[in-house]
Predict the 3D structure of the following.
Amino acid sequence: MPAEQSSDRGRSEQPGAAGSPGMAGSANGSVRPVASGAALPGAGTSSAGIRLKGVGKRFGNVVALRGIDFEIERHSRIGIVGPSGGGKSTLLHIVSGLMEPDAGEVDVEGATSAKDRLARCAMMPQRDLLLPWRTALDNAIIALENRGVSRKEARAQTRPYFERFGLDQFENVRPAQLSGGMRQRVSFMRTLVAGKDVLLLDEPFGALDSITRAQMQEWLLRALSELPRTVLLVTHDVEEALLLSRTVVVMSARPGRVVRTLAADFPTDASRREIVTSREFVDLKEQALEAIG
Ligand SMILES: Nc1ncnc2c1ncn2[C@@H]1O[C@H](COP(=O)(O)OP(=O)(O)OP(=O)(O)O)[C@@H](O)[C@H]1O
Ligand SMILES: [Mg+2]
């Protein structure tokens, strides 16, 4: 199905769901973005969300990140775009608590130590990293098992997600028998059922063709509207960042710095086609691409 036919963007969204406040669709079809969800740099402090202040990281002589500042409210979504090698994955590792910065402060829902940040974040890596010998269901329960939940209980908790994610009847199938998009959904499910409030997605759809990718973007928005989370999404695709995030942070080449912050909260009742062809979207895309340089 071509992306343009996917006109149900956010159709299943519920009141109060991510992306619903601040809609700006108008009678003339304008799909103006609204900066409602995520705070822009310097726009106050929110201990409930994520805040980075002056974050820097160096690996030997390589300065990966320098002076990174941004802030995101709880259950909002921020997209991070920038050139390869600009420190985006490093940034996710720092937020997640897998790594400490050399400089600056990181606050994830009030947690500042690496251990406490780790407890609040779940990461979805670029490659799905599903274990080939485990069924889809047993791949999805790994985080729960790691937390000490019995396999029987973890399976019972996770099984209902398969229907919700369009994977019913695929619980007992091995990853090799799933399509790329299905594997990504199992991988996302695994990230989600970990029960963490913060999701760090590193190029989640990077390996998919453009049609599957567009479908997965729609699907992700719906999933997040039903199960709101705070999301940091790293992507090379500016259009994807603008469609999926409320705020897009453009990073420079190494050493990675924030060079531009764009409000991209498009109305959830507009179709994907309406959004991507709107003047507002095209303008923002242009601004982001210009900032990337
Ligand atoms: N563990 C590490 N040890 C040494 N150098 C590292 C390490 N992790 C990252 N780097 C270096 O830091 C820089 C930023 O890497 P990072 O993976 O964060 O970039 P990126 O923006 O995610 O790139 P891409 O878009 O290609 O995924 C690179 O020069 C990389 O070589
Ligand atoms: Mg990376």
The first strand starts at residue 50 and ends at 59. DSSP finds ten helices and nine strands in the chain. The two ends are 33 Å apart (CA to CA).
